[in-house]
Amino acid sequence: MKTDFQDLKPSPRVLLGPGPSNVHPRVLRAMATPLLGYLDPEFLVIMDEIKELLRYVFQTENDLTLPISGTGTAGMEASLYNIIEPGDRVVVVVKGFFGERICDMAERCGAQVKRIEVEWGRIVEPEQVKAALKDGGVKVVALVHAETSTGVLQPLEEISQMVHEHEAFLLVDAVTSLGGHPVKVDDRGIDICYSGSQKCLACPPGLAPITFNNRAAEAMRNRKSKGQSWYLDMTMVEKYWGQERAYHHTAPITMNYALREALLLIFEEGLEARFERHRLNHQALLAGLQAMGLEPFAQAGHRLWTLNTVRVPKSVEDARIRRRLLDEFSIEIGGGLGPVKGQIWRIGLMGYSSSKQNVLLCLGALETVFREEGYQLAAGAGVAAATEVYS
Ligand SMILES: *Cc1c(COP(=O)(O)O)cnc(C)c1O
After folding, report:
1. Given Cys at both, which of 17, 109, 182, 255 links 334, Cβ 3.0 to 4.6 Å?
2. CA 24 – CA 203 distance, rounded (Å)
3. pLDDT of residue 134
4. What angle do the packed helices 356-372 and 271-291 form, to 10 degrees?
5. Assigned fold of 25-268
């Protein structure tokens, strides 16, 4: 057995990958405070505050809004497992890695899944959704708002209207948009929406905020068969988070402290200011990357502010560049997944990580590594272009 254990001393990283993102010191401090019991009256107040703040960030008045204990994927399962019954017809838009995961889960629920395939890096067009709905009988249309594997932001308005004309439910993954882009659950008529704590909410991974509107909550409560997950059964989870306070599982107390603090930081900053910060930093980073000769991957006009994707230049080696950024600058950026593995980089600017300081640091570090790896570029071009955006 190993006996030479060292002190836990992780390097302070600048997390500019696809998540987790950096956590605000106030959130870390909140996590070092003493535990309360899961039914302590003080903890119940904290739970109510979290629900209130989640409604603010989701831009909804939905009663059934709470954090699921688990990462974003648990939010995905809770959404699908509670609404889908065996035999239900479900349309899933697959335009990246996470759409694929939704399909897998919907199949595990016994749904008849119809996939809408979209080329990676592009949005789904409303006509494609319309075609998938035309035979009728569809219960759920599921899609990803901010596809973290491609850097694409999906417009939702038109699709939402169509889905509701067919009396189906619109289920949206907002893991990489909540807290960085407007999600507008109520305005857009999103019936079920989930996210994760570690991306634009700038909290450690471990909780998955979720919201159901009344129509979706009713459908879930009136389902004919029991859902296959006990742990993620919202009809039981909602009893603990609602008035009954019935024990279901022990809430991860510390993670809830963290989420409360992270949400409070968003409330203090204000949603509009926060969106604007994400937009501006994205614009500056992308201008810098383009000035360095890098080509954006995501479809123009539909690029995420929270995650920037660019093609890896032919003359450099993907993994080597990322490793050097990590070793020499303590900066993490993401590589490509699936069909774009080795071909794109994913540079996240999420939550606390979305700052001018990080944009300029990242561009400067990339330039240094590029030069040493023999990639030709004009000195200072990236930082200059970004600075121009800020001025
Ligand atoms: C990260 C992510 C998930 C999964 O979240 P985990 O916290 O890794 O379980 C789901 N959907 C999208 C779009 C994501 O970016």
Report:
1. 17
2. 8
3. 95
4. 20
5. Aspartate Aminotransferase; domain 2 (3.40.640)
Q: What is the pLDDT of residues 259-287, one digit of tens each?
A: 999 999 999 999 999 999 999 999 999 99
Alpha carbon nearest to ligand 1 atom 3, residue: 72
Q: Is 257 in the pocket of ligand 1 (CB under 6 A)?
A: no
**98-133 per-position pLDDT tens digit:** 999 999 999 999 999 999 999 999 999 999 999 999
Mutate which of 97, 103, 148, 259 to test ligand 1's pocket (most atoms within 8 Å of Cβ)?
148
Answer whether 154 contacts ligand 1 (Cβ < 6 A). no
Q: For 285-313, write each residue's pLDDT tens digit.
A: 999 999 999 999 999 999 999 999 999 99
Structure tokens at 154: 């999906």
Helix ranges (H only) for the chain are: 25-31, 41-58, 72-83, 97-108, 126-133, 157-165, 214-221, 234-241, 253-269, 271-291, 318-329, 356-372, 381-390
The reply to whether ligand 1 has any atom less than 6 angstroms from the CB of 173 is: yes
Asked if 101 and 243 count as a contact pair (C-beta separation under 8 A), the reply is: no
Q: Where in the chain is the domain with CATH 3.90.1150.10?
A: 271-390
The boundaries of every CATH 3.40.640.10 domain in the chain are 25-268
Ligand 1 pocket check for 308: Cβ under 6 Å? no
pLDDT at 325: 98
pLDDT at 100: 95
3.30.420.40, 3.40.50.300, 3.20.20.190, 3.90.1150.10: CATH of 271-390: 3.90.1150.10
**Tokens describing residue 363:** 């561009």
What is residue 281's predicted lDDT score, i.e. its pLDDT?
A: 98
